[in-house]
Amino acid sequence: MAAVPGLWVAEASWVTHAAGVGRQLAAMLLETGGPAVDPVRLAPGRFDHWSDHKVHETALGHDRGIYDAH
């Protein structure tokens, strides 16, 4: 994914984490501090090298780990 100067994205957050994600994003945008977060670690392109199969299997594994009754 190519970088777009000035574009900030917050996605794939659980509703239970939405307020914290919003607070962190606002702190980063306004440069008011908050917890240190490495933007490179959060870059969407960090998964570009993954195959579609790996993305699917990883996401499905997380979903099953949360929702499958044991």
What brief labels describe this structure?
single chain, mainly alpha, 70 residues, 2 helices, 41% helix
What can you see in these coordinates?
With 70 residues, the protein is mostly helical. The protein contains two helices and no strands. It is flat and about 45 Å long. The model has no long low-confidence stretch (mean pLDDT 78).
Structure summarized in a few sentences:
By secondary structure, this protein is mainly alpha-helical.
- Low-confidence parts lasting 5 or more residues at pLDDT below 50? none
- How many β strands by DSSP? 0
> What's the mean pLDDT score?
78
Q: Decide which structural class fits the backbone.
A: mainly alpha
Radius of gyration: 15 Å
Secondary-structure topology with pairs:
Elements: H1 18-30, H2 52-67
